[in-house]
Amino acid sequence: MLELIQIGRIAGVIVYGKRSKMDLEGIYRPAGSWVTHKRNLLRELLQDYTNEVSKNFKKYYYIDAFAGPGKNRIEETGEKIDGSPLIALKMKPPFTNYVFTEIDSDCYHALCNRVQKFQSQGFKIKVLRGDCNKVLLEEVLPKIPPNTPIFAFLDPEGLELKWETVKEFSNRMATILITFSTQGVMRCLPREETSEAVNQFFGTSREIEEINRKCDLGMLSSPKLRYTLLQLYKSQLAKYFKYINNLCSVWTEDYSTHLYYLLFASNHDLIFRSRIRNR
Asked: What pTM value is reported for the model?
């Protein structure tokens, strides 16, 4: 039976139909100009990674947990740029295996369309729809041999990434790059309705309760709260990963709002021996 997909609205009415290739190619993830820095850094790290691991391993994975549609549109300029999946697919040498997860239906179908040309060239690609935490823990990681190198890009906008998922990578030959969205986390503190999500994101409740108490008493300014949350997350990472690094701190162009940190974590010094120093 033909699958009907929501393709738009006319006069407030949802329109269903078979999604065309043109529809899919018109789907982009909106982003600020700051995203170019994240993408450039990711490209550099992936190039270092594939250059190194391809010398010693026959199989190595790239996992993108919040893959999106594969393309971004810069809001300030309208420029369309490759998202993280296409950046990874264009590495030379490439990864031997790719796994992309995406929960949004539109983004999922757009990404499936954009990776087709790579699949036709023999690339081993899986695009899976669903909550990345469930998909990775139940469908993806159990099928990857423990001694297989993995580079995982974990790029949530807020609290979507659960700590149990991050911790599982510590049991693998994995290198992970995490977007720690300060705005996404701080707007959920202190709020009772998001407390469980915050606890699951950090993997602890005791420290979060203390942070909430200080917020209620007005003891934490915005900069101090941001620093406290970052240090808590890094301390959690340090319990399971040998190498931890805060690669960069990104603000809006006018420096009025802090956006995110990019955090690196690994138990293996397969790469970045000169680039990355443990902090």
From this structure: 0.88
